[in-house]
Write a structure and sequence with these properties.
about 45% helix; alpha+beta; elongated; five-stranded mixed beta sheet; 29 helices
Length: about 775
């Protein structure tokens, strides 16, 4: 018999001895036989389920590629052209960090609290697993904890568990996580598992990942967290809502102290440091989710929309389409954060004063009458939203039940209890505004204010269509110039009745008539009847065609009233029109995005300038721009010099619609075109006095904005820039007075007496009378 046979014989004898020992033991203790049988059954069942999971009977396990490129959503970041972050776009607010961004104490707090044997196991902690099997499975103590290692938790975070409350499903999920955890341990070093965990974990308040949580609760980057702040964040992991430090500070502080005690237990802290940290109060620097916060929220919404359209044309490497909400992109925009801050500050400085003026004009019975009108419309709209067969539906009962509401005020958000009816009336009474600043040569957006508050109104007033008032008159003048009408062709300042249009008779704002205006004089002093006369001379269809050529997209009826701005236009469209005037008839394409980078910094998209579109002759654009300088020097925009003391070369136009519903101003410098609109969302809410004119509502925002721009040394070249000198052939066409008296002295004397009620027999030389006497204001 050889040695191998001897070994086999010895093993058989030992195995036989073990069986005899087991038989004697079970005969002496019958209960032990049942227990061992039960254990064997559990073991066999575990093995059966384990191999079934591993072989994919309950769904395939993730492969190595899925583990190396885990399916986690990452927030995209939107930047200004000067490198400032404007905000994030996300389904889950997450910014990825590296191991260099993790302070040592944060890793120590995590390990001490969540997985003390992290550096000694291979993804599965056997002692913890035994506790789970005994307490959770056999004893049914669901509160005993999951016993998962950090690698298992990471597997659960990356690949969501199958739903189900049965013990079998729990076992299946645990086995899947164990198998995935072991793969993770094979693919990643321990330190990288920690990083991946911190980048993935949810810490409440829409904060996914440690970087988002650090900013949300403490207003800082992860690498700047102190030990007690890090312990607070680790404490949140157990129950993000329950231990939310912003909403439940006492709970969060107690949980923080538990984390510190775990760090003491595992020698990451000494007793002196532990006592010192435990005595510190919990101090937060809370920043709410950024969707409603930060600079230029309406612009960010615009950029998000534009980026999604652009990315549809740029597939991911390996397939699929880039997603701005989940792929962690970097979007660099054209907007300048400094100009944006000046624009928002100008709105903040001026709009509260205008709101107080509006409120003062709607006091007492006038306010009650307005409220009745608004309510009637709201009730009708609300009733239409319900099935008509619900006859018992009481609209008033729905509108009048008070509820907790957050209201916008210029002093800050106000939490109150108010009925939906009163809330709607309050919202309707608020003045809104829009501001758009654009570089006329490139079309790049420099500043964008879409409203007074994004939280309460995501509607973007830069894109809103409202009646344009006199800001449309340059379109009429551009049509006249393009049609061959010379700037010095005088037009009578006389009121006419147009019978073919329902006996419509336009009026001047100051009700002064007589004499004749050149095109520049009519534009400077915004003479309504001259604008209408020019339109009728050319035909309304020509003006409509020119408006569309200049980029106004909406439907414009070919009627004479459009000369006074009755057509609906947007601030975005009109800023484009004025940019073409500054840019000598070349209209640039509006641009908001310069480039888009992938999560690893790879270039996905880069803006390539599109050649400007020729919309009018250069000579005519220069002539029109020169005429519009008169608005600032002598007309309705002259307060920009006298009150705001602006030094830049300026041109522009004010606009006011009927009943002071909309106020406009669009200003032009050689480097910047800026448009401002002010009004209420509901046209029924408007100024009842001349306080609602564009020169009072919109122009001051432009003035305050440009004041800040001129003071900023970064834009000194803009302040010193000058409009290009007119070519001699263009200048010669503008060499005339703004206003001319009637040819016949008898006609002039009749006008003088009718206007001023003064005897004209002594007027021999009317030319000595200043033009201001006859110019409308």
């Amino acid at each position: 018999m050889n040695s191998q046979d001897i070994s086999i014989q010895s093993s058989k004898e030992k195995l036989q001895q073990y069986f005899e020992w087991a038989n004697r033991l079970t005969r002496q203790n019958p209960w032990l036989s049942g227990f061992l049988g039960f254990c064997m059954m559990v073991f066999l069942l575990w093995q059966m389920i384990f191999w079934s999971v591993q072989l994919g009977a309950f769904g395939p396990l993730p492969d190595n590629r899925m583990l190396l490129f885990p399916p986690i959503d990452k927030a995209s970041e939107i930047y200004s052209v000067d490198g400032e972050i404007l905000g994030r776009v996300y389904l889950k607010d997450r910014t990825l960090i590296t191991d260099r961004d993790l302070p040592v104490h944060l890793t120590e707090a995590l390990i001490a609290t969540e997985d003390a044997r992290f550096y000694t196991h291979d993804g599965v902690d056997i002692p913890s697993l035994g506790r789970v099997l005994i307490k959770n499975i056999l004893m049914g103590e669901k509160s005993a904890g999951g016993g998962s290692t950090l690698s298992q938790q990471l597997a659960k975070l990356w690949f969501q568990r199958e739903r189900g409350n049965s013990y079998i499903q729990l076992v299946i999920n645990k086995i899947r996580e164990m198998l995935v955890a072991e793969k993770i341990e094979q693919l990643y070093p321990k330190d990288q598992i920690i990083v991946q965990y911190f980048n993935t974990v949810f810490l409440g308040e829409q904060a996914h990942g440690i970087e988002a949580a650090a900013y949300r609760y403490f207003g800082k980057e992860t690498k700047a967290l102190t030990i007690e702040e890090g312990a607070t964040l680790i404490g949140i992991l157990r129950a993000p809502s329950y231990y939310n430090p912003y909403r439940h500070q006492d709970r969060a502080q107690k949980r923080r102290d538990v984390v510190l005690s775990q760090m003491l237990k595992y020698d990451y802290l000494d007793s002196v440091m532990y006592d010192s940290l435990k005595s510190l109060p919990l101090v937060l620097d809370y920043h709410p989710p950024q969707i409603y916060q930060g600079a230029a929220p309406h612009f960010r919404a615009e950029v998000t929309w534009n980026a999604r359209k652009l990315l549809a044309n740029y597939p991911k490497p390996g397939g699929g389409v880039w997603d701005i909400y989940t792929d962690g992109l970097k979007i660099v925009t054209t907007l300048d954060s400094r100009l944006q801050s000046y624009a928002e500050a100008a709105v903040q400085a001026h709009m509260p004063r205008m709101q107080r003026k509006l409120d003062a004009e709607w006091r007492g019975w006038a306010r009650k009458k307005l409220n009745r009108s608004l309510l009637a419309r709201h009730r009708k709209q609300l009733a239409r939203n319900f099935e008509p067969n619900i006859a018992s539906f009481d609209v008033d009962s729905l509108l009048e039940i008070p509820r907790k509401t957050r209201l916008f005020t210029w002093e800050g958000w106000q939490d109150t209890v108010i009925s939906p009816l009163d809330s709607m009336l309050y919202a309707e009474s608020l003045l809104q505004t829009g501001l758009l600043a654009m570089a006329p040569q490139t079309g790049q957006v420099q500043a964008w204010v879409g409203g007074i508050d994004f939280y309460h109104g995501q509607f973007d007033h830069v894109r809103a269509h409202r009646q344009g008032g006199s800001i449309f008159k340059p379109v009429v003048m551009a049509t006249a110039l393009e049609s061959g009408i010379a700037p010095c062709d005088f037009v009578k300042n006389e009121q006419k009745t147009y019978q073919q249009y329902g006996n419509w008779s336009p009026e001047n704002a100051d009700a002064h008539y007589g004499g004749q205006y050149s095109m520049r004089g009519a534009l400077t002093h915004s003479v309504n009847v001259v604008a209408v006369s020019l339109l009728m001379q050319m035909g309304a269809e020509k003006v409509v065609d020119m408006a569309h050529k200049l980029g106004i997209e909406g439907e414009i009826p070919p009627v004479p009233s459009i000369a006074l701005g009755t057509a609906d236009v947007s601030l975005k469209e009109m800023v484009g029109v004025y940019a073409a005037i500054v840019n000598k008839g070349q209209q640039p394409q509006l641009t908001s995005i310069l480039r888009i980078e992938g999560p690893e910094g790879e270039l996905i998209y880069e803006h390539e300038p599109v050649p400007a579109k020729t919309v009018m002759q250069a000579s005519n654009a220069q002539a029109l721009g020169y005429m519009m300088e008169g608005v600032v020097e002598q007309g309705t925009g002259r307060s920009l010099r006298s009150r705001y003391h602006l030094k830049s070369d300026l041109a522009g136009k004010t606009g006011t619609t009927q009943l002071q519903t909309d106020g406009w101003f669009i200003g032009m410098t050689p480097a910047l075109v800026t448009g401002v609109w002010v009004g209420a969302d509901d046209p029924q809410v408007h100024f009842r006095t001349m306080a609602g004119q564009g020169a009072s509502t919109a122009l001051p925002i432009f003035g305050k904005f440009m004041q800040a721009v001129e003071k900023d040394s970064n834009f000194v070249s803009w302040k010193n820039a000058t409009f290009e000198s007119l070519p001699p052939q263009v200048a010669s066409t503008l060499d005339c007075d703004e206003y001319a008296f009637p040819v016949a002295m008898s006609e002039f004397k009749a006008w003088w007496e009718a206007t001023y009620g003064v005897d004209s027999t002594q007027l021999d030389s009317p030319q000595v009378i200043p033009i201001e006497t006859f110019s409308p204001r």
